[in-house]
Amino acid sequence: MRDLREITPEETKERVIEELQKIYDPELPVDIYNLGLIYNIDCWKDDISKLNRCKVTMTLTSPTCSMSEVIVDLVKSIPSRMDGELEELDVELTFDPPWDQSKMSDEAKLAMGLL
After folding, report:
1. How confident is the model over 53-86, as pLDDT tens digits?
2. Where are the beta strands (DSSP E) in the chain?
């Protein structure tokens, strides 16, 4: 088994993206990553534990999204699904810039009937 301290921040970021692609907006048939709700993922190695930590900067389709707590809680729970690979994941929720359809991937636009 690979030592968790040897896993690079880049590898962890890819795994975080995989997990984000499993989280669907409950009101739309598209995952939050392809929907364009994720603005930034920053991962680094913690100086003390030598394990990876990440910060996800994200938005929601609307500041009044009724499912905001559910979506944010699902993102925050990603470390629990990564077998100790990720020590901690912080979420920063922002509405600047506001989300719009241009942030969606082509896959998401196709699923929503926009292509």
Report:
1. 999 999 999 899 888 999 999 999 999 999 888 9
2. 38-45, 52-58, 86-93
